[in-house]
Specification:
Monomer. Its cofactor is Zn(2+). This is Metalloendopeptidase. Pfam families: Astacin. InterPro entries: MetalloPept_cat_dom_sf, Peptidase_M12A, Peptidase_Metallo. This protein is globular. It is α/β, with parallel strands linked by helices. Strand 2, helix 2 and strand 3 form a beta-alpha-beta unit. The chain contains five helices and ten strands. A five-stranded mixed β-sheet has the order 3-2-4-6-5, covered by helices on one side. The chain has a three-stranded mixed β-sheet with strand order 1-8-9, with no helix packed on it. Strands 7-10 form a two-stranded antiparallel ribbon. The protein has one domain: 3-Layer(aba) Sandwich (Collagenase (Catalytic Domain)), CATH 3.40.390. Bound molecules: zinc ion. The site of zinc ion has 7 residues, from helix 3.
Length: 242
């Protein structure tokens, strides 16, 4: 799930990150024909977490749908965030055969459990819905200052890892008849009006092993498998869920 938000150039060459929200919270999905049935089952289970707690609805794609999400298997976890207004297809790549390669007697040891896959898929789906990484909040430097050496965000040390650094500005918009309607622009100074909490270590979008609190206390590593309460609140606010 690390370094998983696609379109590096789009995100890194601009101070303004733009995320298109889905109309009425309905996300048409198309699963690649080569996905195995048990993988499809895990994907549907991951979607269900959103159905249970928010007004987001993943619905099977039909030709009448303009924007849709397409999920396929690949060698990484990767997502386009929100709707894709360039080619209408929000592509999600899932590394469902992912293996941690641990050198123990030179044997590869498979350690990705079903729960870990579920977390990774929910993490990607959260980006599809429109959430950015919790540790990339524009105000995150008020709360956290550096990384643990073990962190997968190692490039953060060189201040060059675009999936780990704070975002300057996030502009949410919706599409209506090919016209962009701005919804909100989140920057350092107004984020608390939208996301009314400090950095949420339980967020499904957080990298749990990376950060140290401002007071130099190591953050306890919290590894949650479901959407956090604040993730749910954020989604409900963005989509005006009743
Ligand atoms: Zn991510």
């Amino acid at each position: 799930m690390n370094k998983d938000i696609a379109l590096k150039n789009h995100w890194s060459n601009s101070d303004d990150t733009e995320i298109g929200l889905w109309k009425d919270g309905r996300i048409p999905y198309l699963l690649d024909e080569y996905l195995m049935n048990h993988h499809k089952g895990i994907i549907l289970e991951a979607m269900n977490d959103f159905h249970m707690h928010t007004c987001i609805r993943f619905i099977p794609y039909e030709s009448k749908h303009k924007y849709y999400m397409y999920m396929k298997k690949g060698k990484k976890y990767s997502t386009y965030p929100g709707i894709n207004v360039v080619n209408n297809k929000t592509e999600v790549v899932l590394d469902l055969d992912y293996e941690h390669e641990t050198k123990r007697n030179k044997t590869k040891i498979k350690t990705q459990t079903k729960m870990e896959r579920l977390r990774a898929i929910r993490h990607e789906l959260a980006h599809v819905v429109g959430l950015f990484h919790e540790h990339q909040r524009p105000d995150r430097d008020n709360f956290i200052e550096t990384i643990q050496k073990s962190c997968s965000c190692t490039l953060l040390i060189n201040n060059s890892d675009w999936n780990c650094n704070p975002l300057t500005k996030i502009s949410y918009f919706s599409m209506n008849k090919n016209i962009r309607n701005p919804i909100v622009t989140i920057v350092d100074t107004n984020i608390s009006e939208w996301f009314n909490h400090v950095v949420d270590q339980e967020s499904i979008t957080f990298y749990p092993d990376c950060f140290i609190q401002k007071d130099s206390q190591p953050m306890p590593i919290v590894f949650k498998y479901e959407l956090s309460n604040y993730d749910i609140q954020k989604i409900k606010k963005l989509y005006n869920c009743k």
